[in-house]
Amino acid sequence: MSPISTCRDGTDRLMEYMDGVLDEPLRQAIDAHVAGCARCQAFVRSYAAVPGVVRDATRVTLGPEARDALRRALAGRRS
Amino acid sequence: MSVDGLAAAPDEDLVARAVAGDEPAFEKLVERHQQRAYGLARRLVGNDGDAQDVLQEAFLSVYRKLAGFRGESRFSTWLFRIVTNAALMHLRARARRPQEPLDAFLPGFDGDGRHLGEPAEIEAAAHAAERLDRQALAERAQQGVARLPEIYRAAFVLRDLEEMPTAEVADLLGVGPDVVRQRVHRARLMLRGYLGDAVEGAR
Ligand SMILES: [Zn+2]
User: Fold this and answer.
1) Which of B34, B63, B184 comes nearest A62 by C-beta?
2) Cα distance from A65 to chain B (closest Cα, Å)?
3) Cα–ligand 1 centroid distance for A12 (angstroms)
4) What is the rounded distance in angstroms from the CA atom of residue B133 to the CA atom of residue B93?
5) Which residues contact B119 (CB under 8 A, 6 or more apart)?
6) How far is the CA of A43 from the centre of ligand 1 (A)?
7) 3-state secondary structure of B96
8) DSSP bridge partners of B1
9) pTM
10) CATH 1.10.490.10 fits B3-93, yes or no
């Protein structure tokens, strides 16, 4: 039996799959399951979207006032 | 060294000059890395005020420890380690009321190990950016990251938000790459469910 026979098996290995550290047979077994499973296809799309969505949504800029405050704090405390 | 020379100098040269007492070289290091260091701190602690405190603490720490920087890792990795540690210490010192964990948002399976739900619901998190307005999405994402267990949060922020390679995150956190992958995976699963839930609720 394939080591990847259910949605749960594939889901457990998804990070390793995407990081490119899975053995080739495991990788192929996941590909084969996902190719025939609409739920897993949907799952992979949502899982893969998380880093980009959260990255964009949590982007911040250090404003000029905060830069000044940092510069002053550092100048004050290291001398 | 001229101002232009400082601007073009690699980090390692600036470190050497700063250790020798060259204040402008230290200031240049701060100027060069403050934005990314702040972004990291902000994502780890969750608000501007605390992130600015962490940023100050971290750069003061850099200043004091600079002579001990041996260049085994890149300066930016070393700095990120200091910022991460400062942020985690800051969080612990504040002892906030415990956040409700995100375990309820982990994916569900039936007895045969099949995903629960219809594909459209399962996929919801992939449409967070189109279906939620900017403000709602920013709040949801921020809350989600804040509600991750600390060890997952640090791994996820470094790996997925700051886009550091897994091996570098492992080095920074002092754990193996498998542990990093496991933590990032759990964080992604939780955030996927948490974002998907907001998208479903917004329909
Ligand atoms: Zn499946």
Assistant:
1) B34
2) 11
3) 12
4) 34
5) A38, A39, A41, A42
6) 8
7) coil
8) none
9) 0.92
10) no
> What pLDDT, in 10s, does the model give residues B82-123?
999 999 999 888 766 667 789 999 999 999 999 999 999 999
Q: Where are the domains of chain B?
A: 3-93, 102-202
**d(CA B120, ligand 1 centre) in Å:** 14
| AA letter at B70 | R
Smallest CA-to-CA distance from B161 within B43, B41, B33 is with B43
Among the partner-chain residues A15, A61, A78, the one whose CB lies closest to the CB of B60 is A78
Q: Which residue of A has its CA nearest to B54?
A: A70
Sole residue written with tokens 């402008």: B24
User: Fold match between B3-93 and B102-202?
Assistant: no
Q: How far apart are CA B46 and CA B51, in angstroms?
A: 7
Q: Which residue has the tokens 């995150």?
A: B169
- The ipTM (two decimal places) reads 0.93
Query: With an 8 Å Cβ cutoff, are A58 and B129 in contact?
Result: no
Our CA dihedral for B191, B49, B180, B161, rounded to 10 degrees, sits at 60
A1 touches chain B (CB under 8 A): no
**Tens place of pLDDT per residue across chain B (203 aa):** 555 678 889 999 999 999 999 999 999 999 999 999 999 999 999 999 999 999 999 999 999 999 888 878 889 999 999 999 999 999 888 766 667 789 999 999 999 999 999 999 999 999 999 999 999 999 999 999 999 999 999 999 999 999 999 999 999 999 999 999 999 999 999 999 999 999 998 87
Q: Which CATH architecture has domain B102-202?
A: Up-down Bundle (1.20)
Q: Does A40 touch chain B (CB under 8 A)?
A: yes
Contact A35/B at CB under 8 A: no
